[in-house]
Amino acid sequence: MITLAEAKDILLDIKDKRTEEDMELGYELRRAINHAELFSRTDGPKSRELVEKLLELEKMKPEIAYRLADFIPATFDEIRSIYAKERFTLTEEEITAILDLLTDAY
């Protein structure tokens, strides 16, 4: 799994290589790069570091850690919405710990 910021870095590398080789960028590639640039809020290494820190928390699954690193939610409700499908609920302390990690990264 990779974060959106890491995908953006990969896509920009592909764009640079194709530009150097005078190759045309396909429609899908242009759209993917545009999407990644619009919605990624940090860079690849920072997002990877954030995922690793999030995975150290007790009730953290990899899928959720990557989703949190991509969206970087700013409120309790946004974090709760990401955890809505889980069979457990987070305490306020757990949500605060997640928010602290996210605000440090952003």
Give a description of the structure.
18% of the residues are buried. The mean pLDDT is 92. Helix 1 (4-20) packs antiparallel against helix 3. The longest helix is centred in the N-terminal third of the chain and has 17 residues, at 4-20. The protein has helices at 4-20, 27-39, 44-55, 62-71, 76-82, 92-105. By secondary structure, it is mainly α. The chain is elongated.
Describe the structure concisely.
The protein has 106 residues and is mainly α.
SSE topology string? HHHHHH
Q: What is the mean predicted local confidence, pLDDT? A: 92
How many beta-strand runs?
0
Runs in which pLDDT lies below 50 for 5 or more consecutive residues are none
Shape: elongated
> Number of helical runs?
6
Main sheet makeup: none
Measured distance between first and last alpha carbons: 21 Å
